[in-house]
Amino acid sequence: MNLEELRAEIDTIDDNLLQDFAQRMNVVGQIGLEKKSEGLPTLDPAREREKLADIVTKLPPEMEQYGYTLWSMLFEISRSYQSSLNPQPSALRKDIERAIADTQPLFPPAATVACQGVEGAYSQLACEKLFKHPQVMYFKTFESVFSAIENGFCDYAVLPLENSTAGSVKEIYDLMLSHSSFKIVRSTRLKVDHNLVAKKGTKMSDIKEIFSHPQAISQCAKFLDAMPGVKITACENTAAAAEAVAKSERTDVAAISSYNCVDLYGLERLAADIQDRSNNYTRFICISKKLEIYPGADKTSLMLVLPHRPGALYQILGRFYALGMNLIKLESRPLPDREFEFMFYFDLETSVYSDEFIRLVDDLDAICEEFQYLGSYSEVI
Predict the structure, then answer these.
(1) Is the full-model pTM beyond 0.85?
(2) What is the pLDDT of residue 12?
(3) If you count DSSP H runs as helices and E runs as strands, how many of each does the chain have, helices first?
């Protein structure tokens, strides 16, 4: 048979498969309704294991793994369909609906906002992009920023989450694990242009030590590699680095920071745009103690702890796929109290008003061991 004849045969097989799929899903729906009448859960793990084991034995050895994968996805789609026929409004769904109803239609123009660092930090610039008239309060550590929200000391906080060059800010993800009294209410992306700044009159040839935050150091790796013999010292914040240089009695030190720090601390810019990539962006999240969902929210963040078994992550990804949700971020962090087990952080692109979102929210209890809903929000570009 030639290619066209083989494709025609595939089309015929696919037509038959479509009929069988529709018939199967119809029976799946009937089973779902029967489970509802008997008060049984949608997921029956033992039944699925038995079915998968039986399917594998009926396939040639070279097709076993492919068949296992296909039917695993089919089971995930079937459960999703059964759930849609038997909606069980969860407590989280009620919280979300209440937040949508109670949240003001406009994001507040003014608020007390916690940021890590000092005046001139990139977090401050992100804060001013989110709020028209923020009252910024600075804290030395990210831990203190989370505590300020938990204790009600500040209305909101702005935190860096990831950079397009250096990747995720791991410390923030780890702190999310240990702090649960917060919700993400908005995010933004800030173009980050790093500068080498020093005291006025300092020359490039004078520099013996450069201070900055580890993320900024990573983002300027090529520039720093071209300065052999210069000591690179990490500190808690780019603006704090600039402030330290300004206050130092030394004339052989410099900092990597934003251009705002030049005038702010009376410094001089020795080199501009020293980051490795011109399209260097950092994504910041804005968090609050209260769940707030503003109109237009089209992103949702979740943290899930999945069963420690093969295929657990695949199954949750299959659920996202079955619901037509676009996964735009996946991050894993080790659980501090469990050996070689992880928390998975997901950013999903889905409208908070969609049926698919509601179905996912209602199913979270059944598809993972533990979860934390971090919020639904929109991103300011």
Answers:
(1) no
(2) 95
(3) 13, 16
